[in-house]
Automatic annotation (TrEMBL):
PANTHER family named in the record: HTH-TYPE TRANSCRIPTIONAL REGULATOR RUTR, TRANSCRIPTIONAL REGULATORY PROTEIN
Lineage per the UniProt record: Bacteria, Bacillati, Actinomycetota, Actinomycetes, Kitasatosporales
GO function terms (MF aspect): DNA-binding transcription factor activity; transcription cis-regulatory region binding
Span of domain HTH tetR-type: 25-85
Organism: Streptomyces finlayi
Residue ranges of the annotated DNA-binding region, renumbered to this chain: 48-67
Official protein name in the record: TetR family transcriptional regulator
Keywords (A to Z) from UniProt: DNA-binding, Transcription, Transcription regulation
GO biological process, any: negative regulation of DNA-templated transcription
Length: 237
């Protein structure tokens, strides 16, 4: 395959375009933006080298001169959307609030790009924009007196909470859109069934729990509480 390396290689160490010839007609930014547009509109499974090549107006084989592997394309995409973060917040003594604010940015970003929770990985953790994000988040943790390794654990745990939370929100929204009836009708049917089961007396702990806190928790409150529990395990606020 044209442009494919024979040994392990990081995309960021390669020239913009492999081989000889005229100046590259496309930049990595062009390619990443095209792939992101496709993923946003049609889902990550729709992203292929052929589709991206068509989107930017080049042949599929020519695209391999710029991006040797599909994995490299995913890395370019993750890096591209990571540029959307606002990293202007300065460090402060209230590191918890700063990390929560950044987590809210991540949640919003993932909703703008619903394919991200499915591809986010430590494999793509050291691209230029992701490195800038990590350095910024570490700066927000300057006031937290724990070793570097624990700070990285905190960042990973927060990322995991946000990714899992948003993946569930996206899956729930997709399920609702696929229903042949309204979401309210679906909830009413499921609630009626749940009440009928709880009323049998076979689930006394659940019955007591629902009597204490009826109805689903507000997702925003739940999100904040989940983050707070993770952060509470690291130092003092």
């Amino acid at each position: 395959m044209v442009g494919r390396p024979a040994v392990p290689e990081v995309i960021w160490t390669r020239p913009e375009r492999a081989g000889r010839g005229p100046r590259p007609a496309f930049s990595r930014a062009d390619i990443a933006a095209a792939a992101v547009r496709i993923a946003d509109a049609e889902g990550i499974d729709a992203v292929s080298m052929r589709k991206v090549a068509a989107e930017i107006g080049c042949g599929t084989m020519s695209l391999y001169n710029y991006v040797p592997r599909k994995e490299d394309l995913l890395e370019l995409m993750v890096d591209a959307i990571s540029a959307e973060y606002d990293l202007s917040a300065p460090p402060s003594e209230d590191w918890r609030a700063a990390v929560v604010a950044l987590a809210h940015q991540t949640r919003a970003l993932m909703h703008r790009h619903p394919w991200v929770p499915g591809v986010i990985s430590g494999v793509y953790g050291f691209s230029p924009n992701v490195l800038a994000f990590l350095e910024h988040e570490l700066s927000l943790l300057d006031a937290l007196d724990v070793p570097f390794g624990e700070k990285m654990e905190l960042i990973a745990l927060v990322q995991g909470v946000v990714t899992t939370f948003v993946a569930n929100e996206i899956a729930t929204a997709e399920h609702s859109r696929s229903l042949p009836w309204t979401e309210e009708q679906e909830k009413a049917a499921r609630t009626s069934y749940l009440i009928s089961q709880i009323s049998t007396g076979r689930y006394p702990r659940m019955a007591a729990g629902f009597a204490e806190a009826p109805g689903p928790a507000d997702p925003d409150v739940f999100f904040e509480r989940a983050l707070g529990r993770v952060l509470s395990s690291f130092g003092r606020p």
